[in-house]
Amino acid sequence: MDHLFSVSRPRRTIAPGAVHIPGWLSTNRQRELVEQCREWARPPAPMRRTALPGGGRMSVSTVCLGWHWSPYRYTRTAVDVDDAPVPPVSPTLVDLGRRAVTDAYDDPAAGRAYEPDTALINFYDPAARMGMHRDKDERVNAPIVSISLGDACLFRFGNTESRGRPYTDVRLESGDLFVFGGPSRFAFHGVPLIHPGTGNAECGLTGGRLNITLRTTGLT
Ligand code: MD3
Ligand code: FE
Fold first, then answer.
1. Total structural domains within the chain
2. Å from CA of 134 to ligand 2 middle
3. Which residue segment(s) compose the domain that 82 sits in?
4. Three-state SS string across the chain, please?
C-alpha cells in the first residue's frame, strides 16, 4: 500500500532548501533507531529536560552525541548534567545523514560532502512542545537532517525574519525525513503539538515522539 500512501503524502519542498519526504524509513529501520535512542538516553550523560537560564526546564527531553548542546553553546562534555564526555556520532548515523541529503536534494555529491558532527535526540511526551526558535549556535550552514519516530506532530516551519507569520504547518509522522539547508537553515521553527496515540506501534515506542536531528557545528 506504500504507493497509495505516497499519493496523499507526496514529497514536498516547503521552502528553498527545505524538503519533506514522508515514509522515508522502513518500519524495521525505525525500530532499530528507537532501540539505539534508548541506549543513547542512558547514563553517563543521560537524556534530560534541559534547564533554561530563566530557571525553568524545557518540556522536551534531549540527549546529545558528538557535541553537547545546552543553552546556548556546544561543549564536549555534558556540562549541565554530569559533565561526562558525550559519545561520538555513530558511523551509522553519519551514513543515514548522507543518504538523507542525497535523497532530499537528489544530489549524491552533496550527500558525500555531508559531515554531521552532532546529533540531538529529542523525546516529546504527549504534552511536550517546542516553541518557535532558530538554531544558531552552529558556525557553518550545512543542512540539518531531521528524522521523526513514534507519535505524529504538528511541525511549524516559519521564516528567517520573525517567530510569526508567514509559516507553513506540516504533519510529521513516524519514518518521515525533513532536510533543512540553504536559505531554510536559519528559519524559525517549532513543534506546537504532538498527536498522542498516532505512532507506528511496530516501531517500539509505546507513546510519545522521538526526533533525531543531525547537525554540523563547525567546531573543532
Ligand atoms: C529547521 N527540533 O532540536 S526538527 C531542535 O522535531 C528542533 O524535535 C524539532 O527544532 C523537533 O532544535 C524540529 C528539525 C529542525 C531542526 C533544526 C532546524 C528543523 C529546522 C533548523 C532550521 C530550520
Ligand atoms: Fe530547532
1. 1
2. 6
3. 12-215
4. CHHHHHHHCCCEEEECCEEEECCCCCHHHHHHHHHHHHHHCCCCCCCEEEECCCCCEEEEEEEEECCEEECCEEECECCCCCCCECCCCCHHHHHHHHHHHHHHHCCHHHHHHCCCCEEEEEEECCCCCEEEECCCCCCCCCCEEEEEEECEEEEEECCCCCCCCCCEEEEECCCCEEEECHHHCCCCEEEEEEECCCCCHHHCCCCCEEEEEEECCCCC
